[in-house]
Amino acid sequence: MEEFVRAVEATVFASAEPLTVDDIQGHVGEGDVAAALQTLTEIYTGRGVELVERGGHWHFQTAPDLAHLLRRTREEPRRLSRAATETLAIIAYHEPVSRAEIEAIRGVQISKGTLDVLMEAGWVRTAGRREGPGRPLLYASTQEFLTHFGLGSRKDLPGIDDLKAAGLLDPLEDGVFEALGQLQLESEEQED
After folding, report:
1. What is the Cα–Cα distance from 106 to 101, expressed in whole angstroms?
2. I need a surface site. Which of 24, 30, 94, 98 has the fewest CB within 10 A?
3. In total, how many domains does the chain have?
4. Phi, psi of 113 (to 5 degrees)
5. Whole-structure pTM over 0.85, yes or no?
6. Which of 176, 186, 3 is closest to 90 using CA atoms?
7. How far is residue 179's CA from residue 192's CA, in Å, rounded to a whole number?
8. Do residues 65 and 89 share a domain?
9. Which segment of 11-15, 139-143, 164-168 scores lowest on mean pLDDT?
10. pLDDT tens for residues 6-51?
11. Full domain range(s) for residue 10
12. 118 plus 56 within the same structural domain
């Protein structure tokens, strides 16, 4: 088992991209990859690098408390406009979603540049076309979005009550989030 764990460790370490369990299995062959990953997670807990899983993909990352030591230049935080932030939230919570649906939720048109900024950041991708008149493009969040915001999956997105408790919603925004909830209910009813 120790050799198999070492093989899994080497595979994840050498990969330029996060890997799924199936990807790892394809490299190392027969064996319990999940158990090996659990063993490695325990070994690397509290170390300078950690083995983490984000959205079903495994990779090594610098321990969050030590990341500042490795930065040679100060990273400029990516500043998103309010429109881009709202658009990203709508896509994350309602994906796949069309441009018209985003505009209906926001109550205003969005510029092409807003979606371009989110796609260039690697947080949003096209997710096909909706079957229906005009066959509009659909947008969805990406694995990079989950990784950047430290989410294991979309299920880890905070709910409205969490956002209110954190003081991140002002009374004017409550109407927007009520509309989001109503749109979600209508979407679920259409699927049934």
Report:
1. 9
2. 30
3. 2
4. -60, -30
5. no
6. 176
7. 20
8. no
9. 164-168
10. 999 999 999 989 999 999 999 998 899 999 999 999 999 989 899 9
11. 2-70
12. no
